[in-house]
Amino acid sequence: MTPRAADAPQKTPTQPRAAAGARAAFAPGKVILLGEHAVVYGVPALAGALAAGVRVKPAPGAPTLCVPAWGLAVDPAEAPPLARAYRAILEALAIERPPCGFEVEFELPTGAGLGSSAALSVALVRALGPACGRSLERADELRAAMAAESVFHGRASGIDHAVAAHGGFGRFTRKDGFQPLPAPRPIRLVVGHTGRARDTQGRVMRVAEIERERPDETRLRFAAIGALVERAERAIGSGDLDELGAAMNENQRELEALEVSCPEIEALCREARGAGALGAKLTGGGGGGCVIALAPDREEAVLAAWRGAGHEAFVTAVGAGA
Ligand code: PMV
Predict the structure, then answer these.
(1) Percent of the chain as helix, strand, coil, to the nearest 5
(2) Which of 33, 149, 160 to mutate to test the pocket of ligand 1 (most atoms within 8 A of CB)?
(3) 279 pLDDT higher than 50
(4) Residue 301 to residues 230, 271, 294, 296: CA-CA distances in angstroms?
(5) What is the distance in A from the centroid of ligand 1 to the CA of 15?
(6) Which pLDDT tens digit goes with each residue over 251-262?
(7) Residue 139: CB atoms within 10 Å
(8) What pTM, to 2 d.p., does this model score?
(9) How far apart are the first and last CA of the chain?
(10) What's the rounded Cα separation, in Å, for the pair 156 and 201?
(11) CA 31 to CA 268: how far, in whole Å?
(12) Does the pLDDT of residue 21 top 90, yes or no?
């Protein structure tokens, strides 16, 4: 006699369960003080972690990556960039299928050049480890986050996720990675959003085109940016903020010549200098996104100028004890 369906042993569908240690993870956003774009070509850049960043929490159920701020929930098998970045992280860590889902919460504006995508990648790796019962090292974080950054940004130097993984303030090169730098005191910066999304991928591609069209001129610009980074590093070491501000202003002129600025960025730089900033420049990929201003004792004036012109702005600090 064949058993009736009702007599057959019932299989209760089991949801994969996260390892007992599953917990929320955090990684910070960043500002690049000097050296963006040239850093892709081997020049050093100075960057620091922000206090604000991205949190990733394990969520029961299917291994979906859910980003409420973007109205997105993706499975690693899907095609959108977020799903491909998620898949790239899983592949880099040799995780076939995570035992739970994850939910992402941003504490900083996204698409602004403040490293939100790298912070997401690093925080996701940090959440995946305990959820999968794996102990992951810094090297795993860097490798997996780099795989995701390549999906988000194409040709990436690795600076964003190096800062997200290490925290603190330091100097980054493609060759030597992130090296912490002693900054005798925190460097206070005013950060203002142009209101236009930054265009890292497009601007990185444009710089590559310019390098092909005018190689000699472009290499001289990269070298000039490298020299400004060295100058800024010395100025930070000696606490000479006038010198640091001057290096930032010159870096902005080089970035404008590399066609990664835009009218909104130039307007914010002008407004900041008009309000007493010693230095102002774009930070990150450019084409939009954020401007940083070094304005010791004039931070409130820069904030007022930017907010008065309708921009979101805040004060932050990078470096020692920030
Ligand atoms: O826009 P962001 O925050 O991803 O910064 C990109 C920095 C670049 O130097 C333009 C690109 C890179 O990968 O270094």
Answers:
(1) 40, 20, 35
(2) 160
(3) yes
(4) 29, 10, 12, 10
(5) 39
(6) 999 999 999 999
(7) 9
(8) 0.89
(9) 76
(10) 9
(11) 16
(12) no
